Amino acid sequence: MSNATISAVTIRPEEAAHFGKLADEWWDPAGSSAMLHKVNPVRLGFIRDAIDMHWGADIASRQPLAGKRALDVGCGAGLLCEPLARLGADVTGVDAAPENIGAARAHADAVGLQVSYHDGELGTLVPGTYDLVTAMEVLEHVADKQAFIGQLADRLADGGLMILSMPNRTLKSKLLLVEGAERLGMVPRGTHHWDDFVTPEELEELLRAAGLVMGEVRGIAFSALRGLELSDDSSLNFITTARRG
């Protein structure tokens, strides 16, 4: 389950090339990004709850991010950027693969959404901060994880909210995400490198070093009856928030 191809300082060319080849299928729920289409509603449920709690938003509001700036790093073809725009945010998406940004722009234009897309490293963006910073399934693709988290922190406005998700480095994730999902064709081969996965404890240390405090960790787990869902089981994948300490 990957949604990202960007590094804060050093973009791994092979990572950008891998995801760039998938650009034409990002928006096909039956294509190579099918798993993303399944996990995106789960992420969005967590994000909406986090937004409401952080800013005390009206839970009935259709646009709780109205008047706020959002940055999605490693945005792929915009699967998260577009929902954030519908929630009212002024959205910027950045990704290492130009092919992904081309697909993102084309799709946003087709559905009439205003999203500012940029290809390249996070540091190439015009200086500025954002109320909401997201990076979904990105950290495991980054060469210098501490530098990347530091740059995310630099983009977070005072009083802002950061949301991160990633696979956990456990035996379960190795068996199911790498050995299982990729071998069975559920995820494109070469998407995951288990040694680069990060545990919640390691993420907390990275965030602390960047002056951020990690929030509650929620697992993204698979249920035979309900499919992917938020769970107390974080052994496969997890999502969490961060804010300034």
TrEMBL record:
Associated pathway: Cofactor biosynthesis; ubiquinone biosynthesis
The keyword Nucleus is annotated on this UniProt entry: no
Binding residues for S-adenosyl-L-methionine: 43, 74, 95, 136
Top-level taxonomic group: Bacteria
Keywords noted in UniProt: Methyltransferase, S-adenosyl-L-methionine, Transferase, Ubiquinone, Ubiquinone biosynthesis
SUPFAM superfamilies (UniProt xref): S-adenosyl-L-methionine-dependent methyltransferases (SSF53335)
Enzymatic reactions: a 3-(all-trans-polyprenyl)benzene-1,2-diol + S-adenosyl-L-methionine = a 2-methoxy-6-(all-trans-polyprenyl)phenol + S-adenosyl-L-homocysteine + H(+); a 3-demethylubiquinol + S-adenosyl-L-methionine = a ubiquinol + S-adenosyl-L-homocysteine + H(+)
Any one GO molecular function term: polyprenyldihydroxybenzoate methyltransferase activity
Pfam families: Methyltransf_23 (PF13489)
GO biological process, one term: methylation
EC identifiers of the protein: 2.1.1.222, 2.1.1.64
Broad enzyme group: transferase
InterPro entries documented for this protein: Fumarate_lyase_CS, SAM-dependent_MTases_sf, UbiG_MeTrfase
HAMAP family: UbiG (MF_00472)
Functional summary from the UniProt entry: O-methyltransferase that catalyzes the 2 O-methylation steps in the ubiquinone biosynthetic pathway.
PANTHER family cross-referenced by the UniProt entry: METHYLTRANSFERASE, UBIQUINONE BIOSYNTHESIS O-METHYLTRANSFERASE, MITOCHONDRIAL
UniProt similarity note: Belongs to the methyltransferase superfamily. UbiG/COQ3 family.
Protein name: Ubiquinone biosynthesis O-methyltransferase
Encoding gene per record: ubiG
